Amino acid sequence: MTMMKGGEVMAIMPDGHMGTMMPDAKMSAEMMKMAKPIKHCMMLMTDAKGKTFMIDTSSAKAQAERKKMAM
Partner of 59 at 20 to 30 A CA spacing, among 43, 49, 65, 68? Predict the structure, then answer.
């Protein structure tokens, strides 16, 4: 996985496929009105059929798992 560039927008679909784009200043300003900052780690996983899930990382168990992954 690569880091996002400044100004880049990434979309991750439920079936696991994703896309990125670099919007112009006007589109970026419009998208920022819908955006909320990420306050904690976000974890995504894909099942055997390719469906993508987001994991709530607020529990102690999930925080321990994300710390293992980040090392």
Answer: 49
